[in-house]
Specification:
This protein is of the alpha+beta class. It has two domains: about 5-85, 2-Layer Sandwich (Phosphorylase Kinase, domain 1), CATH 3.30.200.20; about 90-290, Aminoglycoside 3'-phosphotransferase, Chain: A, domain 2, CATH 3.90.1200. About 50% of the residues lie in helices and about 15% in strands. It has ten helices and ten strands. It has helices spanning about 5-10, 55-65, 95-100, 100-115, 130-140, 150-160, 200-210, 215-225, 235-260, 270-290; strands at about 20, 30-35, 40-45, 75-80, 80-85, 90, 170, 180-185, 190, 195-200. Strand 1 and strand 2 form a beta hairpin. About 35% of the residues are buried.
């Protein structure tokens, strides 16, 4: 069945429907569907064990995030398909994050604090350095074109992990692209919970900063807003190091996707190289300021 046929066959619609594509996903197909009850987002996505993505957990998290007040309502779910409320909200761009650092920081602080009260089932830990090491195994076994670079990536991950300051465990979103933040004019929302799980706050703080291209001054303001006090040098070093780890993970995510995904219109090789260029720049900035951590 085509995607449209599968959508039309879902039992959740009220009357006839109209379907339009919703662009933007790197690994999932999304559509906006209008029926007599309003507009809905239909998200197609299968389990990707090589990316630690399991849709049953994503659905649970989406429902928990709605119950906690951070995400649109889940209207229907079955294996491989998630139907949620369409908010009609503005999708953030990098410049929107930079212009609204206080609100984004407040959203993350509340999400980190409140979500553990709503998630259910076995806990899932997203620790980026484990993900990087597991990606390295997947790339080695899959004969990646980057196989010869894996020892260097693993050594770098060890260096960046040693730079982390101990922080409490929270429940993180762990995929803070600007497009996963929505603004309805009154408040901010979060969407797309494929990678959500228990973590330290630093990965979300670093991912948000890196993906939005925050300057050092903007990162300082962002951390100050999140922690509600000026960050000490250990926090700033951890943040800079975690931005490098976030970019390394994104590049290795794309390397794994080169092997196992084939989303229409997505050039994973180009996306890999783009993130490696960004990693080199972030790493030079980090080492210039902080050296290496032995």
């Amino acid at each position: 069945m085509s995607a449209e046929d599968r959508i039309r066959a879902l039992p959740c619609w009220n009357g006839s429907i109209e379907i339009e594509p919703l662009p933007g996903g790197l690994s999932n197909a999304n559509f906006v569907v209008t029926d007599a009850a309003g507009r809905h987002v239909v998200r197609f996505g299968q389990d990707f064990p090589f990316h630690h993505v399991f849709r049953e957990r994503e659905v649970m998290t989406a429902r928990a995030a709605h119950a906690a007040g951070f995400a649109p309502a889940v209207h229907y779910a079955e294996p491989g398909i998630l139907v949620t409320e369409f908010l009609g909200a503005k999708t953030f761009l990098a410049e929107d994050v930079r212009a609204d650092l206080d609100r984004v920081a407040g959203l993350l602080r509340a999400f980190h604090r409140e979500m553990p009260n709503h998630v259910s089932g076995a806990g899932f830990m997203f620790w980026v350095f484990h993900v990087i090491r597991d990606y390295a195994r997947t790339l080695d076994e899959g004969g990646s074109r980057k196989k010869g670079d894996l020892p260097r990536y693993l050594s770098l991950a060890d260096e960046l992990e040693r730079a982390q300051k101990l922080l409490p465990i929270v429940f993180g979103h762990n995929d803070l692209l600007p497009a996963n933040i929505l603004d309805d004019g009154k408040r901010l929302w979060l969407i797309d919970f494929e990678y959500a799980g228990f973590n330290t706050a630093m990965f979300d703080l670093a991912g948000a900063a890196s993906n939005a291209g925050l300057s050092d001054d903007e990162s300082f303001a962002f951390l100050t807003a999140y922690f509600m006090k000026e960050p000490d040098n250990e926090i700033r070093r951890s943040h800079a190091a975690m931005q490098c780890a976030s970019l390394l993970r994104e590049a290795m995510w794309s390397m794994v996707s080169e092997l196992y995904l084939d989303a229409p219109g997505i050039d994973y090789v180009a996306y890999t190289e783009e993130n490696l260029v960004r990693l080199d720049a972030a790493l030079e900035n980090y080492r210039t300021k902080y050296g290496t951590k032995s």
